[in-house]
Design goal:
This protein is an alpha+beta fold. Helix content is 54%, strand content 6%. A hairpin with a 5-residue loop joins β3 and β4. The structure holds glutathione (GSH).
Amino acid sequence: MKLHEAPSPNARRVHVFLKEKGLDAIPSVPVDIRGGENLTSQFRAKNPFGRVPVLELDDGTLLSESVAICRYLEGLHPQPSLFGTTPLALATIEMWNRRAEINFMLSATGAFRNLTGFFKDREKISAEWGVISLENAADALQRFDAVLVDSEFLAGDRFSIADITMGCALDFAKMVKLQLPFDLPGISRYHQALQARPSFQNS
Ligand SMILES: N[C@@H](CCC(=O)N[C@@H](CS)C(=O)NCC(=O)O)C(=O)O
């Protein structure tokens, strides 16, 4: 197996996942996304959407989407489960992972991309949409905060893929200095706890 990747919040989700599972890192194939290597026909043959990470199996099978890659790894190495095992746990973790990804991660990365024009060489950007995305991310944080004041993790008392998504998105949003209410009590406690985990510290 090899992982086509670049330093980025989505590739990081796979790294944190591997560490939480106690698995070795997958050999890495660097992709220069800043320079547009991910937009070439060679890379699009691996992922038509031109995004990293992409997991390439030894038989040439290609898997993209960080959570799909993690699901595959969970199938190979079921313990400790980060997607849940009972019908209720599977659904609850899926619910929170989708909320973390759709409501926070996509809003935060959308704010970054549209406010900074970081990838304006390859996509249309709108400052207005950047402002709206930032507002959506701030609104989502309030909703997550209301849960996290009473709950250790997003899906209850067990760490899951939903926390990997949320933690990587929070770290990214803070690193690129998005003006968001990181100091909300539940968010602040939760983010510090995630940052203290060895899997987050070394990824
Ligand atoms: N939903 C995808 C998102 C992948 C994605 O957006 N990757 C970013 C890096 S975090 C990328 O490849 N950006 C390069 C570009 O937009 O050209 C996943 O979870 O893997």
